[in-house]
Amino acid sequence: MRSVLLALSAAALLGCATQPAPNPSDPAALAAATPQTLRARCIEGHGPSCTELGIRIERGMRSGRETAASFYEKGCDYGDADGCNDLGWLLHNGKGVPVDLRRAGHLYARGCQLGSARACTNLGNLYEDGLGVPKDVFEARALYTRACKLGFGVGCRNEGLLLENGHGGQNPEDLGGARVAYERGCGLGDAGACLNLGNLVREGRGGPVDFARARELFTQACRDGDLLGCNNLGFLYDKGLGVEADMCKAVAEYKRACAGGEPLGCTNLGNAYEEGACLPKDARRGLALHTRACDQKEPLGCNNLAYFLERGVEVPRDFDRALELYHFACNKKQPLACHNLARIHHDGELLPRNLDLAANYHRIACERAHGESCAALARMHHEGLGRLPPNPDEERRLRERACQQGYAKACEKAGTTPPENPSSR
After folding, report:
1. Using 50, 70 and 90 to split pLDDT, how confident is the model at 221?
2. 290-308 confidence digits (pLDDT tens)
């Protein structure tokens, strides 16, 4: 009997081995905990429980006199990085508390030191804009880099943006470095990083042009909710870049972007109405979509509206307003607007001819992957216009770039062929 009893006891011990207690700081455990449990833990000094109570109050899941800010502050005091970040965010944005950027910066700094990638990113935002702290884009980049290394894709994207724009013009552009940062951010699931990387590889900035890769990146960004990704995917179908040209697919993506509130999608949809591409031809509706986009400060929308005003189509002709809109859009690096300014200065019909300005605007547009401007710049070199000396090597490079960007007229002179499109399936 004893041996049997011992055997039963051993079996019972094996079958009922105690499981490790759940970690109360685990996100799933925090989400599952009752308010009473969280409050008891918070009183005991468990920072994440205090922060979780603050989150529930902020989301309207709990009511009463206590505020989200009070619990975030307790969480931060007890060493919870998210509590510091969340209280900083309330103070940064004036959500339920007065705006206090200096204190927000201190809280983000503490959260970043405690390991919150979001706090590092938010502190980087303050340094980049000089809000509550001295403006310092290099400190901002260091904070974005730290956030990226902690696995926060937005931090990688912000790092890439600073590298792409040369730290706000204080350094040369580092487009190769921007590609690396965007690649990592995209891999971490940040749709904006995928979009930005797609733009660089489509334009051949910081590396070779790769339309197939751009299509993958725009598709991923669109799928993850970035409407600009949907628009840019539509552009590839519109122009037949890396895919077989298909205006109906392009229109479908433009409609998706516009319906979601993305003005660039609306102005591209307006172009489709103007051209009657997979839609009834309707210039007036196109104008309405361009106006709607420009009202939202979308540079391409303003360029397209300016083109209507310049020609006096569907609206009274207003060249001064058209010129103002072209300048606005070109200053935002919109390549078609810069190309239109180059055309105006080159032709000398609406303004006195100025070939130096024409060359400058073509250069800006070419750098932003406008193939026709690259070809025009090559022609100006060839003819020695705009103080551009004849330079066969530069002419060839520019024509190759024009061809690469789908401007077929440049391909024959460049001795190359347009980018190949995959066969339809």
Report:
1. very high
2. 999 999 999 999 999 999 9
DSSP letters along 268-285, please? HHHHHHHHTSSS---HHH
Residues of the chain with CATH 1.25.40.10: 33-135, 156-261, 263-332, 334-425
**For residue 168, what pLDDT is reported?**
82
The amino acid sitting at 313 is: V
Third-level CATH fold of 334-425: 1.25.40
pLDDT in tens, 223-276: 999 999 999 999 999 999 999 999 999 999 999 999 999 999 999 999 999 999
Task: With H, G, I as helix, E, B as strand and everything else as coil, classify residue 201.
Answer: helix
Measured CA to CA, the distance from residue 35 to residue 50 in angstroms comes to 10
What is the structure's pLDDT at 207? 96
Residues 6+ apart with CB under 8 A from 217: 186, 194, 195, 197, 198, 201, 229
Secondary structure (DSSP) of 317-369: --HHHHHHHHHHHHHTT-HHHHHHHHHHHHH-SSS---HHHHHHHHHHHHHTT
Q: Is pLDDT at 424 greater than 70 in this prediction?
A: no
> Domain 263-332 belongs to what topology?
1.25.40
